[in-house]
Amino acid sequence: MLLFEQNDTTWSLYQRYISLVISKEFAQQQTGAVKVVTQQDSEQANRRRELLAVEERTNQEKLIKEHGEQHFQKQVMHQFFARVSIEINNEFDNKEHFFQHFLSIEDAAPAILEILSLRAASLNRITPLVKSLVWLSDEVVNLVNKPQYRKRADVKVSDPSLAINYIGLENLKLVMPTYILKHWLPHSTAPFSLMKRKLWNDSLSVALAAKALAQAQDSDWYTAFTAGMLSNIGLLAVARCFVNKHNEVYNREVRDAYDKRDKRLHDALLLVESSPDLLLEQLCTRSNQIGTDLVEQMNFDRLRITEPLFDLAFVNDPKKMTDIAQLVAKARAYVAFRSLAKEELINNDEAKLLLSAAKITAADVALLKKSDIDHIKLNFS
To answer: Could you tell me the pTM of the whole model?
Structure first.
């Protein structure tokens, strides 16, 4: 968000927040936190100290040899990440291919979101679109078969049409943006195993926070909720592309080294790990543009979220943003603050700067603190 880039401190905090999405350990490294493990006196510890002298002599003998291998390893890693960056950039430059290949956004998905924004929205218009997406049909069927939502414990719903009818229009306004964004999450973010969950949890929290703020001022909560949910689509897309291209290039390089019988290169490639620094750079520099490109290609007409999402990406003053963009900016700043505070990665002065950048008032903070912005609550009659 350009909003956070105008000040060195807020930009550093935003990058720290994105680092935390990647992994807690990486975020701690960004702030200079070091985990210290104390060693208790023990027979094993004494034995370890006796070995130190021997290890030191051995290490000295290996140093010259290892220096050459370390230099080679660094060269391999540098060249590998350079190729990954080139291929990722090529993907981003081909917008239409990226839109279809990395998120596989079917036309029915934005059409559903659009219809739900209309006064003339009806289940008859939405049902065929949901049924055209097998994954979405499965989601709604699974939802109504959850114990808390089943009308009768002995009856299981299998027809998507019946499930949609049971859910109802008002609940669908929460369910559809949620399941659609969930479908666009990366299939895997390994080796950053918790990143997928954090991307999802934060997207949901931003959407629910925007909804709560909108309802407090009698604004259109559905538009705020959907804009909040899709405000993270750039992060999802960049993360998905990075993981896929990293693994694709890595597998190709290892296979080529093996086929050429280049053992030294092959062994060096096996030591290459995914770079959180490169991922952070891509997320911070690419997600705004990619997110707006994706939303623009969804061709929303009646659902007024395209302009707000452009405001979030490219406007640095909340006062110059649309009302919906202002709500989502507050929601995103609050969720970033809450995430950092939970892990003790932000101090009071930094928190004030981060929240004030989005013009969050004390009343806003009080409202969001007492609101459940972690769980969707559906009302089944």
So the answer is: 0.85
